Amino acid sequence: MAVGGAAQAGEWQDPADVLNNLLEANPDSAYLHQSEMNIMMMPDNPALWVADDGEELFYQERGPNNASLESCDFGKGPGVLDGAYVELPRYFEDVGKVMDFEQRLVHCMKEIQGFDEDDAAVAQRHGSGSDIMQLTTYIAMQSSGMEWQPQNDHPEEQALIAAGEKLFFRRGGAQDFNCAACHGQSGKRIRASVLPQMRNSQEWTKAVSWPAQRAGHDNVRSQNHRIRGCVWQMRHAAIKPDSMANTALIAFWNDAARGEPAILPDLKR
């Protein structure tokens, strides 16, 4: 059930309203209430400007094939964006595998628009000025307030969620860390930052609500960027975008927030 019963799976909500509902439903969550300034800034989130740029890019005919992305199928039919982001990762028949959002977007940019792997439009994945981040922010925003429902009917979808859970709890690296070291219990901190608890789905929906403007970075960041940052902080070997390991972690992350409304885009520390 959505927070406070305010939103059903198919309803769009302003991200600031989604956050306010979460705050009202969880008055004692130190994690959700820790950034008073960011909460106040949500109606003027700089990520909204990035989404505007992404909308222009989505409908623009570009690339060697001079095509828009309107024929890209994110799982709900060509060009259908409402609710698509929160249902990913999912299995796609046309490629015979499970894809996360960024992986699917890059696939469409290559197959539909004709971009090459080395073209800046595809190769540059991070930063508010990148095509990928602008498109991600616009497309994700069309699912704001809708419940996380990563697909889990296909055996490969189920396998990826299970693999992501294994990775989440698997210790490794120079410091013998895992994701659960920070997110397996409530009350954990890194310096002044209160960390979300993975088993608290109403904290976790905010934790996985990327893209988000990171105030400390002055850039919009994605789920993939957050995974890269976490892996680096744990001193694990780098994880490659578009890899099964990356998709598996996203699948498990989103599944842990299942049934909770997504804040898209969010504004974080």
UniProtKB/TrEMBL annotation:
Q: Which Pfam families match?
A: SoxA-TsdA_cyt-c
Is Metal-binding given among the entry's keywords? yes
One GO term of the cellular component aspect?
cytochrome complex
Protein's UniProt keywords contain Lipoprotein? no
- Which segments constitute the Cytochrome c domain? 159-269
Q: SUPFAM superfamilies, from UniProt?
A: Cytochrome c
Using the UniProt record, name the top-level EC class of this enzyme in a single word: transferase
Family indicated by similarity: Belongs to the SoxA family.
| Assembly mode | Heterodimer of SoxA and SoxX.
Q: What is this protein called?
A: L-cysteine S-thiosulfotransferase subunit SoxA
Tell me the lineage of the source organism: Bacteria, Pseudomonadati, Pseudomonadota, Gammaproteobacteria, Chromatiales
